Amino acid sequence: MTSTSDIPQNHSERVEPEDEPLLGRPGDASQKPDDNILRNLVTGTASVAQVGIWMLAALVWSGILSQPLSLFTAHPLLSISAVFLQVQSSLILQPTVTQRQKTRGARLHAAIQLISTLLFVSGFITIEVKKGSSARLISPHGILGLTTYISVVLQALAGVVQFFFPLAILGSVDAGKRIYKYHRWTGYVLLLLEMATVVAATQTTYNLIAIHISLGPVVVAAILTLAGVGARIKKQKLGIGLV
């Protein structure tokens, strides 16, 4: 979700150091006044993130669909689709600058995240039904996966509260704004957790015996995704460098 504080009234104003992304020039991560918001999906290092997440999704989808369809099939397909949407929701929101851009970006971000969260929950239900009475949490992937599912739901709830219902639940709009940066921090940490979960999936017995998705390409795709998203993080939005 986004904060409406410290918004420049004129896009031609000098960009302060805190408005700069972690890597690159300020313009590499800032939406121009007349830009279609969808351009945010490829602006600057977003193209790197897109290569990574499309590669990751292709590896999982092709690997899973190379096997006979079963109840289990839905679990990885739903989960990787959810991760794909999480990346898109971050990329579309990161470069917003003006209040109008931020509001529209936040609403699109929320809509995409809603679909993503529903896919995550569906993926969790699918694997729970598939496992039945079988043992759980016996692999790094299983432990990371459960942690991810819980974190995704909590992150989504926090975002909805702080952006849509700050007055009713937190007592004021300002109270919601004060926790925006923490929502962003946890969102980026959650993306790291999601990537770790996908990487860990390559070491599960099912993948090693049946699907054979290689660890190397998955790691490369995850690194590209994280690098592309991470390079566009604006220091100001995380509270870094503020006096």
UniProtKB/TrEMBL annotation:
Keywords: Electron transport, Heme, Iron, Membrane, Metal-binding, Transmembrane, Transmembrane helix, Transport. It is a multi-pass membrane protein. It comes from the Eukaryota. It is found in: Membrane. Residues 1-10 have a biased composition (Polar residues). Residues 1-35 are annotated as: Disordered. Its cofactor is heme b. One of its GO terms (molecular function) is transmembrane monodehydroascorbate reductase activity. The chain crosses the membrane at residues 41-63, 69-87, 108-127, 147-173, 185-203, 209-229. This is Cytochrome b561 domain-containing protein.
